[in-house]
Amino acid sequence: MGEVIVIGAGGHARTIGNILKLMNNIKIINFIDCFKKDNEKIVNKDVIQVENIITYIQNQKIQDVVLALGDNKKREYYFKELNKRGYNFLNVIHPTAIIEDNVKLGNGVVIGAGVILGAEVIIKNNTIINNGVIVDHESIIGNNVHIAPGTKIAGRVIIGNNTFIGVGSSIIDNISIGKNVIAGAGSVIIKDIEDNAKVVGVPAKRI
């Protein structure tokens, strides 16, 4: 049975913990974070407060980690730091997800409950595809992206690195979204979006 330490103890960590319980041959050692409540547990596992997450991980006899951090910047930082030290990032996939055979997944990907990934979709490293998301054929989702619950992404959409797409958003086909974009909840994206933009609305407009 593979043993993992989960980095993070917020709301997203609870989602991760529940998925890991459903996966075969995975044993959670504990959850770690720089902040915690007294006697806090997640899926009956201890949450340990540590001063330095990287140092703590290096002192453990494990090679597999899970990043349970919803914030793209924090998740990117720990992915880079631990990756260059040779750690492995587990893909966390809910058993109810529907994933076509020719989908390509990077490392450290999270696929939530009820997700549908269509033909030839590519999900790159350290990306969260949250509960109930649909990603249709040939779409490419970049590194360190977070697609929030209930989002629907049509075919041949490209989403750049470090982008956040808010809950319940919709993206029509053949759209290109740049890196470091933030799309607010319920956005309907019908035009390309440049790097570093913040958009919201129906249709989505820059703010």
TrEMBL record:
NCBIfam families: NeuD_NnaD. The record marks E138 as: Increases basicity of active site His. Residues 4-82 form the PglD N-terminal domain. Pfam families: PglD_N. Gene3D superfamilies: 3.40.50.20, Hexapeptide repeat proteins. It comes from Orenia metallireducens. The active site is at H137. This is PglD N-terminal domain-containing protein. Acetyl-CoA binds at H146. Substrate binds at G70.
